[in-house]
Specification:
The chain has 9 helices and 10 strands. With 248 residues, the chain is α/β, with parallel strands linked by helices. The strands form 2 sheets. The protein has a 6-stranded mixed β-sheet, sandwiched between helices. The chain has a 4-stranded antiparallel β-sheet with strand order 2-1-4-5. The structure holds adenosine-5'-triphosphate (ATP).
Length: 248
């Protein structure tokens, strides 16, 4: 469904993405693993189109020059120059790193913000399904998002992204700062989302171990470049990958 080819992103002269090509098929879960600064968030911003907004903002305020190259297609249609809100309409929805909830708004308000493109009926149905997947949120709906634990906030952030009814959900480091127990809960939920909604999901993470059991295929990035790719098992069988990304 999504094919990205030859993606290059420069922040001024700094090459943040170096010729990255990545594919995600329908109903697949794809992992993208890499250390700090490998370029994972830049990749997510490029796929969602948010990088184009950043580019424009920087240009208007006379800041750094951001250059983006490469091609992205969704369902065989070129979306490379499509603005982020139009990509969202076509189904690409980003759940950003560090969740970015509105801390003073309630969980319910945060979820409703995600449904800005939906009809009332769709929003209600999607909310029911989000609360089925993330049932601990049911009793937290009227609490300020800023008062939730990290794990609960992550559920609310993924829930908000789901409210936009994605066909391709981009999860940027959803496990960041979560306890192993919550990491497990979030990964199980992601698996259920794929099963229930038949959507595609791309997940970035620094550490592959908690994510690898649920991915169909994964890429490893270093310094903006793709250094390896394969099925979860292929990556697990590779001693270099094991040492660097599985903590073995
Ligand atoms: P992390 O795990 O720390 O979030 P990441 O893999 O998501 O890392 P990116 O945030 O994409 O990596 O950053 C890739 C590189 O681009 C880094 O060297 C970072 O410092 C740089 N970078 C990111 N955003 C900007 C920006 N707006 N201006 C300049 N450099 C940037």
């Amino acid at each position: 469904m999504l094919v990205a080819e030859g993606l290059m992103v420069f922040y001024e002269n700094m090459l943040a993405l170096n010729n990255i090509s990545i594919k995600c098929g329908e109903n697949q879960i794809i992992g993208v693993f890499g250390a700090n600064s490998a370029g994972k968030s830049t990749l997510m911003y490029t796929l969602s189109g948010i990088i184009l907004d950043q580019m424009k903002k920087e240009k208007m305020r006379g800041g750094e020059q951001i250059t983006v190259m490469g091609e992205i297609s969704l369902f065989d249609q070129d979306i490379s120059s499509l603005k982020p809100h139009l990509r969202a309409r076509r189904g690409i929805v980003l759940c950003p790193e560090r969740r970015r909830l509105f801390p003073e708004s309630s969980v319910l308000e945060n979820l409703k913000i995600g449904a800005y493109m939906a009809t009332k009926k769709e929003a209600k149905e999607t909310l029911d399904y989000v609360l089925e997947i993330f049932s601990p949120l049911k009793k937290l709906l009227h609490r300020s998002a800023g008062f939730l634990s990290g794990g609960e906030q992550q559920m609310a952030a993924i829930g908000r992204a789901l409210m936009a009814q994605p066909k391709l959900l981009l999860l940027d480091e959803p496990l960041l700062g979560l306890s192993p127990a919550y990491q497990q809960v979030v990964m199980e939920s992601v698996k259920r989302i794929r099963e229930m909604k038949k959507i595609s999901i791309i997940i970035t993470e620094q550490f592959a171990r908690p994510v690898i059991p649920i991915v169909d295929y994964a890429y490893i990035m270093e310094n903006g470049s793709r250094v390896m790719s394969g099925s979860g098992q292929e990556l697990l069988d590779n001693p270099d990958v094991k040492a660097a990304y599985f903590g073995v």
